Amino acid sequence: MEFVTRRDFVRTSVAAGAAVTAATAAGMASQTALGGSSTAQHIKIIGVSCSPRKGKTTAVSLQVCLEAAKKVSPRIEVELVELAGMKIDGSLAAGLPLEPGQKDDFAKLVPKLADPDVGGIIIGTPVYFSGMTSLCKAFLDRCITLWQDNLKLSNKVAGVLAVGGSRNGGQEVTIQSVQAVLLCQEMIVVGTSGPAPRIGATVWNSAGDDVSKDEFGMTKARDLGRRVAEVALRLKGV
């Protein structure tokens, strides 16, 4: 049996990987020449604002994410969904029926989230006592229906953004709590890119609801949107 050093193994593996990459690229080019759909497919990135305040800091920060995602490729489409004003009862996740006359808006979100063209979802929430909002928790709990229905969110890319009242106001622990739910959905969770990479976009509302003043936070929001779009494109083979 021939002895293979670790250096030889690495060199061989890299060469094999390069060959596979080249073959994949050639296959995609061939499919494109034959009129295949891989390069013509549009991929949608949805931002879900879980703030009870419509159009405020979380929605604005998510819009920054989505604009950055859109710039990654002309094939990226984006949409912002605000849960503010919607009736979403988290207790229904336990299988309880709607009360007579009770309004619930979650059902109309299901086809939007489960759409096969949706390659990425970015969840945004304000930070309340180092945690997500009750609206965010109710929304995530109700997504159990998507898990039960053949894991409809599986392999979609996920990113999380949190807006806090101070620079270190619990944003990261809030992001982690949301990410834990998304991992249970078998989503592919990504953070931000370098320099100064983070597990997600941490935004500081320091100037009376004008998050644009938070240069670091806006940079991380753009990083997150770009990262979600890039990974979604790769997963779709575009």
- Compute the separation of the termini in Å: 42 Å
> How many helical stretches?
7
CATH architecture of the largest domain: 3-Layer(aba) Sandwich
**What is the average per-residue confidence, as pLDDT, rounded to a whole number?**
87
CATH top level assignment of the largest domain: Alpha Beta
Summed up, the domain count is: 2
Uncertain residue ranges:
1-39
Shape: globular
CATH superfamily of the largest domain: Flavodoxin domain
Spatial extent as radius of gyration: 20 Å
Q: Can you write the helix and strand succession as a string?
A: HEHEHEHHEHEEH
How much helical structure, as a percent, in the residues?
Answer: 40-55%
Number of strands: 6
Which structural class do the helices and strands define?
alpha/beta
CATH fold description of the largest domain: Rossmann fold
Q: What portion of residues belong to β-strands? A: 15-25%
Main pleated-sheet profile: 6 strands, parallel
